[in-house]
Amino acid sequence: MLIIQDAGFFLTIQDLGRTGWRRFGVPAAGPMDAFAFRAANALAGNPPEAAALEIGLGGCRLQAGTDLLAAVTGAGFELRLDNKPTPLWMLLRIRGGQVISLHPKPGGCWAYLSINGGLAAPLILGSRAASPSLGADVFRRLRAGDQLPPGESFHPVLPGRFLPQDALPKYRNLPTLEVIPGPQQEAFTLEGQAAFLFGEYAVREDSDRMGYRLEGPRIGHHDGADLTSEGLVMGAVQVPASGMPIVMMSDCPTTGGYTKIATIVSADLPLLAQCPPGIGRVRFRQTTVAAAQARLRMMMTALETKIQEPEEDGLGWVGAA
């Protein structure tokens, strides 16, 4: 059981997202940083789709109602256990009554907390992911006083297992993101295409889970930005008439009517997600579908092969009362 003492500004339950409903206009939701989310579940001994907490903006404070095993991953936060600095990207033993807190720091903006067994949140439309755009109370942000029961343990694991630094994404405030040319690339002038690929774009402060708004060199169109609405996916880069790109993120709508110059590859979406709005800047580099798929496979393989196991159950000190 996890008891929320302070939910900060943005605390939700997420899983890998709501699949099979986009054709009905239901956003997929899911984590902003899918790699960190999957890593938290892998460290906790859960399947990738298990429900976990997504923490953004302002951090949070939680109390363990019972003994549990928990892993916290992500970037831009310091983790403390009973106010003692504690490692991220490691499975920890938490004693009942102890307080887990996350405190913002430079270098990112999303963190994930997974407990062994996952969270026993309601399964609705095939998913436990919060999606505020749906409006129902069960999809809301979490609040102080909420109590989150664990699910059933999936796999016995020992505290102390961790993911080494060389397996983590290279989070930074100025990443270069690889992209695949979009379906309307020819709708943009050659100067506009060059501006996109050779310019540098700031992540605006009004970016959110629906879309990251970028500011930089204007991307020009041949004959306007509008088209008949068509499907959108996370990572799609829309360019409205302003010439300033908007990257679709986890809560993006299912359709949109602006031309798309590119799609950011899945392996680099975590880097964009962790670029702090108002601080982060991004650049783009074109790649191929085959190369993008190979990079994603390497990332996912790291979660299966690079987790380091403790020699023995010797990390009880982490959660010592």
Mean pLDDT over the residues: 92
Task: Give a quick account of the main beta sheet: strands, pairing sense, barrel closure.
Answer: 7 strands, mixed, barrel
For the secondary structure, the number of strands is: 20
What Rg do the Cα atoms give? 20 Å
What is the terminal separation in angstroms? Answer: 17 Å
Uncertain runs: 314-321
Helix content: 10-25%
- Gross morphology is globular
Nutshell version of this structure?
With 321 residues, this protein is α+β, with helices and mostly antiparallel strands.
Keywords:
321 residues, globular, alpha+beta, 7-stranded mixed barrel
Describe the structure.
- The model is unreliable at 314-321 (pLDDT under 50).
- 45% of the residues are buried.
- The chain starts with a strand and ends in a 16-residue tail after the last helix.
- The strands form 4 sheets. Strands 12-19-16-17-14-13-20 form a 7-stranded mixed beta barrel. A 6-stranded antiparallel beta sheet has the order 7-6-9-4-1-11, with no helix packed on it. Strands 2-3-10-5-8 form a 5-stranded antiparallel beta sheet, with helices on one face.
- The protein has 321 residues and is α+β, with helices and mostly antiparallel strands.
- It is built from 4 helices and 20 strands.
